[in-house]
Amino acid sequence: MNSASSKYLSLSTSMKLAVASSIFLLLPSYLNAISIQFETSVYDLSYLATVELFGFALASIICYFLARFSTIKINEHFAIVVLASTHLASAYCNDINLFLALRAISGVAAGLILVLSYEALSHEANPDLAFGKAIAFQMLYSGSLFLCLPYLIADFGVDTFFFLLAGMSVLLLLLPKFPLFDTEAAEAFNLQKADFSTKILALSAVFMILLTHSGCWSMLSVVGDKLQVLPVEQGQVLAVGTFFSLIGAVLASLVSLSRYKKALTILGLIFQGLVIVLLFSTQSQWLYFVAVSLFMLFWNFLLPLFMGTISETDHSGDIIRLSVAAQTTGAALGPYVLLKGWVLSELVVFLAITFICIFPLLSHRNTVDVK
Known about the structure:
This protein is 80% helix and 0% strand. The chain contains 15 helices and no strands. α9 (196-218) packs parallel to α14 (318-337). By secondary structure, the protein is mainly α.
């Protein structure tokens, strides 16, 4: 495969990953859109996002068992057609129970595409670079939509949200299909595996950091409404926040080369806790803008460092494969476990638990680096 075709396949995979992740990337806009569609508060509809994100976790489990115990392969185009169809049907759905079923199916279809995208990126010659480009594309994609969606919804109605996602899903059919990989090749290597307690800590750390950030992410529109920030302005804030997400990812790349990455990761967790306190306690629209931007920066700073840390605890790859389900489960539960009046307290406790889980792994990583 020549360099040009390889770059095109990498870009194609990045596009699929971004579109498949749309609901999570655009979660505040999604919750705001369905609250308008069903004339219900975001708090009362947050379970819809939870159900859809659980579909991501279910899809990863399906892919894992199919790869391990079956010769059945996921039909990529069928998953894309199902995803586009459920988006389109959601735009016309007025029954909340039917809407719930559509979003659950959409979550599984999107999750299948998501898992296939991760697999394709991990098999590239330079996976770190491939994932970095994919994350950058996701930020560009979500930032553009955060800017455009409020205007489109205001001019053409809330149905525009799902029409747009359906249209972009259909366009994925024009892209080249994922290449096929030999899933048995990795079994030829006899690599040392992490013990059970290390696996539990690693998966718990990934689960908790997604639980915390997904929960906070789903409440951004609620905080904005409380501060009387208009939907268009909220979209602008989130669009600017994606730029800070890119900064966070770049800083994480630099920190990963530093001998102080353990200390800097811990500082990142502490600063993120302070940012969350500011976000939910401020009465200023300006400080809301600052807090959202810093929240997105530290999120994309911490997550790559977490993934790098847990990957070094188990070179056989078991934790990384299982981390997909841990991430999506944490992301799915985040919006659901927050209670009115207790949001800030819960998020601070969740972040503290995250620190407790990751600290032993950071210490192990630091010991290995010293040796």
